[in-house]
Specification:
mainly alpha
Length: about 210
């Protein structure tokens, strides 16, 4: 039965190595989500990015504490990991719970805050004009793009589609991906808290005087 000191120690070390990989995975997902949405201001996705970085730092603390059976380091590791669990679970839940209208509001806010150069790059890449049908577009800003969109078309007053229609699917996918991964890995953090509590209360069989220091 795996319930002794050595087993708990090895399990905690392995779990923290997993956290390092999870941290890099969350960073990669966050970077992809931002790249996929190009210019949209997605603070929830940014929160997933921050959790990935913090998780890597915390896992290093947990690794050292587990190897040395250091009570103080394990205590702070346990507290910080539990707080991270609450934060990551809340952010991931928000990613899944946010409505389509709210996602569009986030995207429009980001569109309005970026520079004209960035907006032009997005319009050139996706062959779109303006954010949505109600947003104002400066005169002449979409003239060249409209010629590309309407090449070979006989429609009078032909114009490119708004950029929202081109970006909406990518934004929705980014939110769902971040939310799903965040929920799954947040429960591994809760398991890590339980395992740390168990490991701290176990006596080192070597009987070192510093075992509980």
């Amino acid at each position: 039965m795996c319930g002794g000191f050595t087993c708990s120690k090895n399990a905690l070390i392995a779990l923290n190595i997993l956290y390092v990989m999870v941290g890099f995975l969350l960073i990669g997902v966050g970077v992809y989500a931002r790249a996929a949405s190009i210019v949209t201001n997605l603070p929830i996705v940014g929160g997933i990015l921050a959790c990935g970085v913090i998780l890597i730092m915390i896992s290093m603390l947990g690794l050292v504490g587990a190897v040395k059976h250091h009570q103080v380091m394990l205590f702070f590791y346990m507290i910080i990991l539990f707080l991270l669990f609450l934060i990551q679970f809340s952010i991931a839940s928000s990613c899944l719970a946010v409505s389509s209208e709210q996602r569009q509001e986030f995207a429009e806010q980001g569109w309005n805050e970026v520079s004209d150069t960035t907006r032009k790059q997005v319009q050139d890449n996706f062959l779109c004009c303006g954010f949505n049908s109600t947003s104002s577009v400066p005169d002449g800003s979409c003239e060249l793009i409209n010629k590309q969109c309407c090449a070979g078309s006989d429609v009078e007053n032909c114009a490119c589609d708004p950029c929202l229609t081109k970006l909406e699917e990518k934004i929705d996918y980014a939110f769902k991906l971040c939310g799903g991964l965040g929920i799954f890995f947040s429960f591994t953090e809760f398991f890590g808290v339980w395992l740390t509590v168990r490991y701290r209360n176990q006596k080192d069989p070597r009987g070192l005087p510093s075992a509980f220091l």
